[in-house]
């Protein structure tokens, strides 16, 4: 495993990864460094919570680190790369979790032929249920991608894909939890209108979404078959699904994934 890793960016995704890595014991907390742009309070908070090393000095964070995680927003990446460039060398691996941003762009900005791995985790990483897509840029060794896989597996599953597939990975898995939350919001609203109190509605809906997810995982059945098993002819589900179809919900979800993927491409181009 890497002897030292550094996080550049200390936001919610950085924290989810740090929490998972520390909890797993794959690295000791003192092997993990984190830095950010200016928020000192946030650095202190992460040190207190996870006993990791935090510093506002870029060189201290990065020197000696074998893997450098980029965890800032895509709009901040050019500035951040300029700041770390003096301390980066070819023997390090850069692991970017930025939406859209290509591995080649990062290597080009750093001005050297170095290894860049691109990852797309999601917020469920916070509780160890993340789904991460990983891809490797030019120069990445098999050992480096396997080490990255081990780190991301501390927060959930890892799927290795080709780089051109990362936009779709971002659209279905990176953004994906938000679509399910959106559906839950609508169900809660409908349950309230239907006369359920909030506590009962939450209990019923959360367990329903959890149960549906586990059915998908634990049975070999396709979602269409699982749906068919619920849908009695002339029954309630049939009427509900018919209403979803009348509102073109399937088309809307496909369009949402397509547009999120387009936005990922735009973020890369900008
Ligand atoms: N949120 C999500 O669901 C997912 C997000 N991502 C990707 O993860 C990345 C981070 O997202 P998120 O954690 O939500 O973002 P946050 O806004 O929570 O955190 C961004 C962090 O970047 C730091 N930062 C900004 N500029 C610099 C710089 N020049 N040098 C060092 N640090 C800098 C900020 O520091 P300061 O506060 O001091 O300004 C802050 O700590 C994004 O690129 C996003 O595309 C990927 C998968 C899922
Ligand atoms: O919305 C975004 O751009 C980021 C990437 C995936 C999830 N959140």
Automatic annotation (TrEMBL):
Record keywords, A-Z: Amino-acid biosynthesis, Cytoplasm, NADP, Oxidoreductase, Proline biosynthesis
Residue stretches making up the Pyrroline-5-carboxylate reductase dimerisation domain: 163-267
An annotated GO cellular component: cytoplasm
Coiled coil: none
Residues reported to bind NADP(+): 71-74
GO BP terms in the entry: L-proline biosynthetic process
Listed GO MF terms: pyrroline-5-carboxylate reductase activity
Name under which the protein is recorded: Pyrroline-5-carboxylate reductase
Organismal lineage: Bacteria, Bacillati, Bacillota, Bacilli, Bacillales
Encoding gene (name): proC
């Amino acid at each position: 495993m890497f002897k030292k890793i550094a996080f550049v960016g200390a936001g919610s995704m950085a924290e989810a990864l740090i929490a998972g890595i520390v909890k797993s014991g794959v690295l000791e907390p003192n092997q993990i460094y984190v830095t950010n742009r200016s928020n000192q309070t946030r650095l202190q908070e992460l040190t207190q919570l996870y006993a990791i090393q935090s510093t506002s000095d870029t060189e201290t964070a990065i020197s000696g680190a074998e893997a450098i995680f980029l965890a800032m927003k895509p709009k901040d990446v050019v500035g951040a790369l300029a700041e770390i460039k003096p301390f980066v060398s070819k023997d390090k691996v850069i692991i970017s979790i930025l939406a859209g941003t290509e591995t080649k762009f990062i290597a080009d900005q750093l001005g050297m032929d170095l290894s860049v791995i691109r990852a797309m985790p999601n917020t469920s990483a916070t509780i160890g249920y993340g789904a991460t897509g990983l891809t490797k840029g030019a120069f990445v060794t098999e050992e480096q991608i396997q080490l990255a896989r081990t780190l991301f597996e501390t927060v959930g599953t890892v799927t290795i894909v080709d780089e051109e597939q990362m936009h779709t990975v971002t659209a279905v898995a990176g953004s994906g939890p938000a679509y399910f939350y959106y559906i839950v919001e609508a169900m809660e609203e409908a349950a309230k209108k239907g006369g359920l109190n909030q506590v009962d509605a939450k209990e019923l809906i959360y367990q329903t979404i959890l149960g549906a997810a586990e059915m998908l995982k634990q049975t070999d059945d396709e979602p269409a078959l699982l749906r068919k098993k619920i849908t009695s002819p002339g029954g309630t589900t049939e009427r509900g699904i018919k209403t979803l179809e009348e509102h073109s919900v399937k088309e809307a979800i496909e369009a949402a994934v397509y547009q999120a993927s387009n936005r990922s491409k735009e973020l890369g181009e900008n």
